[in-house]
Every structure is written in structure tokens, then in C-alpha cells.
Amino acid sequence: MKKTLLACAFITTSALGFAQSCADIFISEYVEGTNNNKAIELYNPTNQTIDLGAGNYKMGRDRDGAGNPMLLAITGVMPPHSVRVFALDKRDPNGTGNEIPLDSALINLADTFLNPVYVQSNSPMYFNGDDAFVLIKGTATILDIVGKIGEDPGEAWYVPSDPTTRYWTKDQTLIRKSSIQQGVSTNPSVFDPSLEWDSLAVNTFTELGQHICLCGDASVYSPKSANEFSYFPNPIDNGLLVIKSSAEMASFNLLSSTGQVVASEKFNNRSFNVNIQLPEAAAGMYYIEVVFQDGTRSVKKLLAK
Predict the structure, then answer these.
(1) Dihedral, CA atoms, 40, 156, 56, 70, nearest 10 degrees?
(2) Alpha carbon separation from 231 to 131, 215, 242, 255, 261 (Å, rounded)
(3) C-alpha pair distances (Å), 155 with each of 121, 124, 189
(4) How many C-beta atoms surround the C-beta of residue 47 within 10 A?
(5) Which domain CATH number covers 247?
(6) What is the pLDDT of residues 256-268, one digit of tens each?
(7) pTM reported for the whole predicted model
(8) Domain check: are 288 and 236 in the same one?
């Protein structure tokens, strides 16, 4: 009963802030991997630069459904339509047991490392599949929740009525669907991860550092790359698309406005200029995602007549 009362008190205070589409940062990726491979990616959907420290942003876990999330202040500057990756600070290459270091790929992709020392009563970044994760602004305004505050689901959350009981928040990487334009600002009565998230295999880190979203220009911001591409015609009406870049391109994806892959193709090495015959598609807005040989990527809009 104590846990339920704590949760209600927290939620009542926080619900005074109402989320609006593309108005403030939210969680775009959740990594709950093996050992200490834990990371949270935040996305800025606005047209303004956001200073996390000045805005008093905090985030952390609700341990085992306690109803009183452990919160850690975060800092950093996020340009418009950019992402920032926060990872658990375990980087000692000789670490063993509870100090096993993060996968080197995750270390390379992280922008900020948090919470190096584990203290049970103050361990915001040591989330497991049964811990809700919360993003807060100011004193208690909820911007986003993964899971349900005040609930311990057992091993992890899964899709309600799923006969296979496949866990989503344990040993998984979750990617926010591109159609989602704001975080969850009130505690859900039931958390169904399939409504807003796509699930990838454990220790998948390849999507960190970029996010496709319908907010703003839906561009992918990657501070680690200046690679860009051009394409024509736009709008397209005969299926033939030409893509050019000064950097070597590895592949491309054509995505629908909801983030579904409509077409994809891998290129040969040293591809700077490619002609692509697209499949027939309904008129509307699409996104072209180009992946470069160095692993970075860029996304632009494409209209189909």
C-alpha cells in the first residue's frame, strides 16, 4: 500500500505539466543490455537549442516499483532536432563483476557517462527490465516515462495479452517510433510497449546517435559526421531517383511517414552517385535515409506524386 500512495503523490504533482507535440525533449532510445550496457538517448524535437542544465532536467529509475523515482540531474546542450546519448559510467577495461565495462561500441557512441558508483538508495542509471525510467523537467513535471511508475512487472514489461510473454524492457534495445512527437506525461494505467516503441535485439547500439521523427524537418543530427547528400527529382513521379554525395555511400532506405521501410538497397564501395528505381508507392511524404561507409547517416524528405 505504501508504494501505491507514493506513486500517486508523485504523479499528482507531475501531471500539472501537459506535454505538447514537438515541444520538449523525450526519450528516443532505451538500451537495457547485458551486464552494464545501459543507455538512454534523448531527442530534441524543437526548433530551439535546449540547455539541459539551465532547464533543470533530471532522469532516473523507479526501482522495483517503489513509486519514488531516483533522479539524476543531467547537463549538455542539444541543438534543434539533435540527440544526446547518456550511458552508465563503467569504462575500466580491467573491471570485473559489477564493474564490467560497457561494450566498446557503446562507449564510442555515448556523449555523457553517468552514475559511476552504485549505491542502492541512489542508483538512477542502474535500471533493469522491471524499473520504470522517468524524464523530469523542473521540480516534478514529467516529460516521459518508459514503463509504469509504482509497478513492478516481475522480470520486465511485455505486451498485454501476449501469449508468448516476450519481454520488451529487459535484454532489449527500444527505438521510439518516428510518429511519436512527445513523451508520456502521465503515468499509464497499463504500459503497452508496442504502442510507441520498436524492439531490437539485445546489445544493439547501431541506432544510437540519430533519430527519425516527424517533428520539425525530421532530420537526423549527428555531431560525429558532416556527411550530406543531394537527390533529384523532388517530388518524384516516375520512380527514378538520383542520389549524389561527396562521401562514400553504403546503402539507402526509403521510409514511409510512419517510419516503415518501403525500399532499401546496399551500394558497392566508392558509391558517390547512384540511380535508384523505386517501387510504386502511394502519393505522400517519405524519408530518404543514406548510410555512409563510415557508419554515419543522414535523412531528408521526399514527396511522391
Answers:
(1) -120
(2) 44, 22, 5, 15, 18
(3) 20, 18, 19
(4) 11
(5) 2.60.40.1220
(6) 765 667 888 888 7
(7) 0.70
(8) yes
